[in-house]
Design a protein that fits this description.
The chain is an alpha+beta fold. Among the domains are: about 30-135, no CATH class; about 155-205, SH3 type barrels, CATH 2.30.30. It contains six helices and five strands; from the N terminus they run αααααββββαβ. The chain has helices at about 5-25, 35-85, 90-115, 115-135, 140-155, 195-200, and strands spanning about 160-165, 170-180, 180-185, 190-195, 205. It has a five-stranded antiparallel sheet. Helix 2 (about 35-85) runs antiparallel to helix 3 (about 90-115), helix 3 runs antiparallel to helix 4 and helix 3 (about 90-115) crosses helix 5. The radius of gyration is 33 Å and the shape is elongated.
Length: about 230
């Protein structure tokens, strides 16, 4: 019989049964009087504790609503600024996603502090200490990520151009890809992976592509060729 019920109803069935038992125990005399009074006292105590949070919940909801209204014009302004900056498409996407994450993360955090400031204060302290420890452990990687972001926002070159990084041996060739941690260059001796921090710190020269190889002259002389005798 239960197998004929919809899937969502089968999942919600235990909750519905418990809810029905609580209602029966609270508003009827079918169950023992002691149990009836105990459930009523528990619900009253929960309501007394929950009531002060209703005002904070409304204020937090109002703040999130205002943040939602401001998000669209702010996002449009950021997109226009990125279009004028000359950043690469990958850089624009990275900046938009990063700012979106920061904006909503900050908005949710502020709204949550209105509901439970003491708890979130301790949580924020723990997250800050953990973030500082991670930053120290990954400071080399963060340096490469920041340099890669700067290369995306203020590009020194584009994919497909030929470059030469001054001060780095064998860092000369065609740019194949600009990743978040490194840049891949196809040099005459093979592919070269250059850390983004090195490219950002050192001068970069745009060089002309190497001349196309001249095909070897055929030694076979056919009739009609000027060299045919």
């Amino acid at each position: 019989m239960l197998n004929k019920l919809p899937g969502w109803l089968r999942k919600a069935l235990p909750t519905l049964i418990l809810l029905a038992l609580v209602v029966v125990a609270s508003f009827t005399n079918w169950l023992p009087a002691g149990l009836h009074q105990s459930i009523i006292d528990t619900l009253k105590g929960f309501g007394v504790k929950l009531l002060p949070m209703v005002g904070d919940l409304l204020v937090a909801a109002l703040f999130l609503s205002i943040a939602h209204l401001l998000y669209s014009p702010l996002s449009t302004g950021v997109c226009k600024a990125l279009d004028r900056s000359g950043a690469s498409n990958r850089g624009k996407i990275m900046v938009r996603r990063s700012l979106q994450l920061i904006y909503w993360g900050l908005a949710i955090f502020i709204a949550a502090t209105m509901l439970a400031p003491d708890l979130l204060g301790k949580l924020f302290l723990g997250v800050s200490l953990f973030g500082a420890a991670m930053a120290l452990a990954l400071q080399g990687m963060m340096k490469e990520v920041i340099s890669g972001a700067l290369l995306q926002l203020m590009p020194k070159f584009e994919v497909g151009q030929h470059i030469e990084v001054v001060g780095i041996a064998d860092a000369k060739g065609k740019v194949v890809d600009i990743e978040y941690l490194s840049t891949k260059v196809e040099s005459p001796s093979g592919p070269v992976i250059i850390p983004n921090s090195k490219i950002w710190e050192n001068p970069v020269k745009l060089v002309p592509p190497p001349p196309a190889p001249v095909p070897p002259k055929s030694l076979l002389i056919l009739p009609g060729d000027p060299d045919f005798k």
